[in-house]
Specification:
The chain has about 425 residues and is an alpha/beta fold. It is built from 15 helices and 17 strands. The structure holds 4'-deoxy-4'-aminopyridoxal-5'-phosphate.
Length: about 425
């Protein structure tokens, strides 16, 4: 599938130092004489200067409300906001920018689908199929829906290495399966799921698929049409964009059939006390004043990403992950959680009996920013019998030196707690 194509090895080299220079936050010392090694990108990535400048431009020159104003600034803001939608449609290869809905992020995208489309297609006695590696935001909204309508949650298991049990998928897609929600890439394991095969299998049984793209949007070329995803959602802050903004893509026939998510200004056609009619796509799903500035910033981030040489970026990211995996395996007492052959940019591990939080605290003093804990995937960690892991997660600006800093930091951790 083109959506999970790995880079060709003979690709041109990626100039990581030039790329890093775009990210002001990476150049700082976090403690005295302690430069930052930022390895928490699966949580939130840093923001490049062109995105920061775009936000500044908006607030300095265009700031006003969209869609309703006749004046110059409002026209400029509307043009920029709708232009961002067009950029994001291109980023996903969506057929039409009207199928791009701005949300607060992945979590809101999933809640939007569960409480509108979910309510249409999931009924009493039905099953919602999830996987064992889902983030809480792709579990809890479906549980809430299941409780409301009398449906049940089924869970496709993962292997010890952290791959989906695709062999079990056919038997788990039963006559009662009304919907599947699955992550494209695991935020805890780094596994890249075979999304195309997964969606094909669900569609063969007539089951729509909601894809959580929070972790694939920053790392994989995306094509929602090739994937044939019914819905695809992601967050801006994990892909060099601002916080508090994200995207939900949906197939037109679904979006048109769905009721609105929230009511208010900007989503209506006509309002009277007797009856209200709704606006068309995408405005039907964007009640109230949207997060205009950050939508524009996210559009800029998408353009920024699309301007990169993706073969080179992916080759670099894979090389750093491979280097980190080798280096970490050589540190006595570490055990990597998530060893699927197809992985991207996440290295989760445990370190002897040292509590991940203790390790993270020592690493922080060394300037190494990692995440520790359950990563909002408690059921997955339970499957591995772990309360948490230490997670280093990479972006295109990370280097082998960042990895060396992590490994050196772990030696200090061992010295203190080992
Ligand atoms: N799904 C996955 C796989 C994630 O990694 C995250 C963020 N950690 C989310 C959903 C939720 O994203 P957000 O908090 O931006 O809504």
């Amino acid at each position: 599938m083109p959506t999970t194509t790995r880079p060709t090895p003979e690709t041109a080299a990626f100039d990581v130092e030039a790329f890093r220079a775009d990210f002001p936050a990476l150049a700082q010392d976090v403690y005295e004489d302690t430069p930052l090694a930022y390895l928490d990108n699966a949580a939130t990535s840093q923001t490049p200067a062109p995105v920061i400048e775009r936000l500044e431009q908006f607030y300095c020159r265009e700031n006003s409300n969209v869609h309703r104003g006749v004046h110059r600034l409002s026209q400029d803001a509307t043009e920029a906001y709708e232009g961002a939608r067009t950029s994001l449609a291109r980023f996903l290869n969506a057929p039409d920018s009207e199928q791009i809905i701005f949300t607060r992020g992945t979590t809101e995208g999933l809640n939007l689908v569960s409480s509108t489309f979910g309510r249409m297609v999931v009924g009493e006695g039905d099953e919602i199929l999830l996987t064992e590696m889902e983030h809480h935001s792709n579990i809890v909204p479906w549980q809430m829906l299941a409780e409301q309508v009398g449906a049940s949650i089924e869970v496709l298991p993962v292997t010890n290495r952290g791959e989906l049990r695709m062999d079990r998928l056919p038997e788990m897609l039963t006559d009662d399966t009304a919907l599947v929600a699955v992550t494209h890439v695991s935020n805890t394991l780094g596994t890249v799921n075979p999304m195309g095969d997964f969606i094909d299998a669900a569609h063969a049984e007539g089951v729509p698929v909601v894809v959580d793209g929070a972790q694939s949007a920053p790392h994989l070329p995306l094509d929602v049409q090739a994937l044939d995803a019914d819905f695809f959602t992601f967050s801006g802050h994990k892909m060099f964009g601002p916080t508090g903004i994200g995207v939900l893509y949906g197939k037109r026939e679904h979006l048109e059939a769905m009721p609105p998510y929230q009511g208010g200004g900007d989503m209506i056609d006509q309002v009277s006390f007797e009856e209200t009619t709704y606006d068309g796509l995408p405005h039907k799903f964007e009640a109230g004043t949207p997060n205009i500035a950050d939508a524009i910033g996210l559009g800029r981030a998408a353009e920024y990403i699309m301007d990169l040489d993706w073969n080179a970026v992916q080759a670099h990211e894979d090389a750093v992950l491979e280097y980190a995996t080798e280096k970490l395996e050589a540190v006595e007492g570490t055990r990597i959680i998530g060893t699927a052959p197809d992985k991207t940019s996440v290295l989760s591990f445990v370190f002897d009996d040292i509590h991940p939080y203790d390790a993270g605290t020592v690493l922080d003093r060394e300037g190494v920013a990692v995440r520790t804990g359950h990563h909002c995937t408690q059921p997955l960690l339970k499957r591995y019998g772990l309360p948490g892991t230490i997670r280093a997660s990479f972006a295109a600006y990370n280097t082998r030196e960042d990895v060396d800093r992590l490994v050196d930091g772990l030696r200090k951790v061992r010295h203190m707690f080992g």
